[in-house]
Amino acid sequence: MFTAPDPADCQTMTEVRDGVDEVDRRVVELLARRFAYMDAAARIKPTRDVVRDEARKAEVKAKVDAEAMRLDVDRALCDRLYEDLIETSIAHELKRWETLHGG
């Protein structure tokens, strides 16, 4: 549940900014959780060569695209953001895998 007013109910720029700040805090919180899953994947995957999974990457991007379409969010923007997020996640997971498994 959000504490800031719904965007449609905002009457002042202070309310808008409070809402944006709250969303940003939640996005960072969700990113921390996503990267914790990357840490778990690095712990679970038996070999370094299975960290990069192009089929899974395509699956994630397809799901994101479907959700963007459903919510009427700029699909090209989501594609760019997720391309960067996935590649950053892979790099993070590879580094974590090497730390955990001595690679």
UniProtKB/TrEMBL annotation:
Pfam families: CM_2. PROSITE patterns: CHORISMATE_MUT_2. It comes from the Bacteria. Residues 7-97 form the Chorismate mutase domain. Keywords: Isomerase. It is an enzyme of class 5 (isomerase). GO terms for molecular function: chorismate mutase activity. SMART domains: CM_2. One of its GO terms (biological process) is salicylic acid biosynthetic process. Transmembrane segments: none annotated. Its EC number is 5.4.99.5. PANTHER family: CHORISMATE MUTASE. This is chorismate mutase. It comes from Sphingomonas rhizophila. The lineage of its organism: Bacteria, Pseudomonadati, Pseudomonadota, Alphaproteobacteria, Sphingomonadales.
